[in-house]
Design brief:
Layout (H helix, E strand, L loop, with lengths): L8 H13 L8 E4 L3 H16 L5 E4 L2 H9 L4 E2 L7 E6 L3 E2 L5 E2 L6 H9 L1 E8 L13 E5 L4 H12 L4 E2 L1 E2 L2 E2 L7 E5 L7 H9 L4 E4 L1 E2 L5 E5 L5 E5 L2 E5 L7 H11 L6
Parallel strand pairs: 1-2, 1-4, 2-3, 4-7, 7-15
Antiparallel strand pairs: 5-6, 6-14, 8-12, 8-13, 9-12, 10-11, 15-16, 16-17
Helix pairs in contact: 1-2
Length: 264
């Protein structure tokens, strides 16, 4: 099946994974909404379903960007302060391994994403096949650090791990998170012991949180442009076909029209 829209193969896979993951969303749930291009497809699809039949879900967003998208599309929003216990969070990932460990943080919201993830009973990760790695680390690891004395924190990170942190920039200005912190990215190439890296970083003064999500994800939904999805859990991997009663091309057209801010 091909989507005859100006969507890249990657975007089609993201849309497919979002639709398959939405099967885990039940009416009335307290639901965490992730951040990033894949999670944005889930928000679009849930808003579409909500317009057809009110889902009654209460959503907690993991970033100001996701909150604005959800609000614009008509989903009911709460905060983690007002809704501290969630049934489910659905979010993307920059990388995942066979043990369901993740690297997240490309969207700059890793702290809020992790706070929401650990508040949920389950975490479903939506992604495409390019994100699967035997070992994490090909994608740079994001680390959130406090702005005050950030150079010293960066130096401590390099001394402890032997990798030079690169402060994330937006043009000529440093990227600042929703909490007012900086992000530094570490290009490991491969992380042989993710838990040791995470624990070392968390022990350093000035480090707020790391983009390593270990033992948090419940399952990973891997979407393919053709419509099928693989669902990876600790017990193995199962392939799910595209729902026969859903026209993928028609659905994509509807979602793009409702929210035209779609990657290509």
């Amino acid at each position: 099946m091909t989507v005859f829209l100006p969507l890249s193969q990657a975007e089609q896979g993201k849309l497919v994974s979002a639709v398959h993951a939405a099967q885990y969303v039940r009416p009335g749930m307290r639901l965490g909404l992730g951040t990033g291009s894949t999670a944005a497809w889930l928000v679009r699809y849930l808003a579409y379903r909500n317009r057809k039949a009110n889902l009654g879900v209460t959503c907690v967003a993991t970033s100001s960007v996701t909150a604005q998208q959800a609000k614009t599309l008509g989903l009911s929003l709460s905060s983690l302060e007002d809704t501290p216990n969630l049934n489910l969070v659905v979010d993307g990932a920059d990388e995942f391994d066979p043990q369901l460990n993740l690297i997240k943080g490309a969207g700059g919201a890793l702290l809020q994403e992790k706070l929401v993830a650990v508040a949920a009973d389950q975490m479903v990760v939506i992604t495409d096949p390019s994100k699967e790695k035997a070992k994490l680390g090909a994608f740079p690891l994001s680390v959130e650090i406090v702005r005050f004395g950030w150079q010293g924190t960066a130096a401590r990170i390099e001394h402890a791990l032997g990798v030079a942190p690169q402060r994330r920039m937006v043009g000529s200005e440093p990227f600042v998170t929703d909490e007012g912190n900086f992000i530094v990215d570490l290009a490991f190439g491969q992380i042989d012991d993710a838990r040791a890296v995470h624990n070392t970083l968390k022990s350093l003064t000035g480090v707020v949180e790391t983009g390593l999500f270990l033992d948090i994800a419940t399952r990973v939904v891997i979407g393919a442009p053709a419509g099928a999805a693989q669902v990876l859990e600790k017990g193995g991997r199962v392939t799910h076909p595209w729902p026969e009663d859903v026209d993928l091309t028609e659905l994509a057209e509807i979602l793009v029209k409702a929210d035209p801010n779609v990657g290509v």
